[in-house]
Amino acid sequence: MNFGFDLTTILTGVLIFFARIIDVSMGTLRTISIVQGRTRISFFLGFVEVSMWLVVISTVIQKITQKPILGLFYALGFSTGNVIGIILERRLAYGQSVLRIFSPQEGPKMATMLREAGYPVTIFQGEGGSGPVSMLYLACARKDLKGILSKIKEIQPDTFYTVDLAGSVSKVYRPFSDTQSRWKSILKIK
Q1: Which CATH number fits domain 96-169: 3.30.70.120, 3.30.750.24, 3.10.180.10, 3.40.190.80?
Q2: Which of 11, 59, 67, 164 has the most other CB atoms within 10 Å of its CB?
Q3: Is this prediction's pTM over 0.85?
Q4: Mind listing the pLDDT tens digit for each residue in 62-94?
Q5: Mind spelling out the 3-state secondary structure of 41-74?
């Protein structure tokens, strides 16, 4: 049996591999867009994703019995596309997060620092396992989260915090960034 190790088959396999990376990555971003209610972006990504998938799957199905190596390229492209889709989604960091910070001593200082940086913070007093704690509550854009956490860790390096995705937020303040979303700036959508 010829497993398809000729140059044409290998080049076809490489194209299948990269096309799968692109369409699966788009599928990941589309899914996130759907969850966040971004209809136009979801429509565009879905259209391109399925169009690419149809071309790739029709090529693989026609040739896989004679050239089984194409199935390997297809599977590797799918797996790699999942990983790249996750990496892209983390870098784009769409949506909002809810940040809860728990601090036994530095809560008021952290709240003041965050407010001075332009973030609205609500502070609550509570009881932890070893005594009183302050809990800071903040809704922020996901892309701001890393910067906020680094500021918090400057005050208290071993800060305990939790982060949740916010499904819906009435208003998120972004003190030092533009108000246009990244997709809108990339796709020039109003």
Answers
A1: 3.30.70.120
A2: 67
A3: no
A4: 988 888 899 999 999 999 999 999 999 888 877
A5: HHHHHHHHHHHHHHHHHHHHHHHCCCCCHHHHHH
